[in-house]
């Protein structure tokens, strides 16, 4: 199933890429849909990572291989999952946007393998990024950055 969503955020493109590839302990706080109990970094390189991530409800998880070797592009491909076939991928293309922000295009290509997976895919198809939550998380980071800049001034 292929689903594409596009949005803008006030966060600059470098910071969008940095948030998508932050595999520190704070990742579940950056991306609130992630269940901290399921988050585990298995391997981490300069432009790649292998991590397990998942959500509480519905209980979905995937061991993903992330790659950000191409500037302006972050992709992650399922190696194992309880909801989609291996090799199902998501690609985030990040472009400079208006006013110093970014335009982000998410290309979600997953083949569900379970009822929960089909329901999640249907929710993403209907709700797009409102379900995925990328824009909301990135906008929250932009607001936090702006508050810090105001405090420092």
Features:
153 residues, 31% helix, 35% strand, alpha+beta, single chain, 7 strands, Alpha-D-Glucose-1,6-Bisphosphate, Chain A, domain 4
Please describe what this structure looks like:
Helices cover 31% and strands 35% of the residues. The protein has helices at residues 13-20, 27-30, 115-127, 129-132, 134-152, and strands spanning 2-9, 40-44, 48-55, 60-67, 73-81, 89-96, 102-109. A seven-stranded antiparallel sheet has the order 1-7-6-5-4-3-2, covered by helices on one side.
Summary of the model, kept short:
The chain has 153 residues and is of the alpha+beta class. It is built from five helices and seven strands; from the N terminus they run E-H-H-E-E-E-E-E-E-H-H-H.
Strand-helix topology:
Blueprint: E1 2-9, H1 13-20, H2 27-30, E2 40-44, E3 48-55, E4 60-67, E5 73-81, E6 89-96, E7 102-109, H3 115-127, H4 129-132, H5 134-152
Antiparallel strand pairs: 1-7, 2-3, 3-4, 4-5, 5-6, 6-7
Give the beta-strand count: 7
**Number of H/I helices:** 5
- Quickly name the level 1 CATH class: Alpha Beta
Structurally, the number of domains stands at: 1
N/C terminus separation: 47 Å
How much is the radius of gyration in Å?
15 Å
Main sheet specs: 7 strands, antiparallel
What structural class do the secondary elements suggest? alpha+beta
Give me the side-by-side strand order of the main sheet: 1-7-6-5-4-3-2
Multimerization state:
single chain
SSE pattern:
EHHEEEEEEHHH
Helicity, as a percent range = 25-40%
The amount of beta strand, in percent, is 35-45%
Q: Can you name the CATH architecture?
A: 2-Layer Sandwich
| Uncertain residue segments | none
Mean pLDDT across residues: 93
């Amino acid at each position: 199933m292929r689903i594409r969503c596009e949005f803008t955020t006030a966060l600059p493109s470098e910071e969008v890429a940095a948030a998508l590839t932050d595999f520190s302990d704070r990742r579940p706080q950056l991306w609130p849909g992630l269940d901290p109990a399921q988050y585990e970094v298995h391997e981490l390189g300069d432009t790649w990572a292998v991590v397990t991530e998942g959500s509480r409800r519905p209980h979905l998880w995937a061991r993903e291989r992330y790659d950000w070797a191409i500037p302006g592009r972050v992709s992650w491909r399922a190696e194992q999952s309880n909801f989609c076939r291996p090799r199902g991928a998501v690609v985030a293309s990040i472009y400079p946007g208006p006013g110093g922000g970014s335009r982000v295009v998410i290309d979600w290509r997953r083949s569900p393998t379970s009822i929960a997976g089909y329901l999640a895919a249907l929710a993403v198809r209907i709700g797009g990024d409102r379900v995925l939550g990328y824009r909301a998380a990135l906008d929250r980071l932009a607001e936090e950055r702006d508050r810090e800049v105001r405090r420092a001034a």
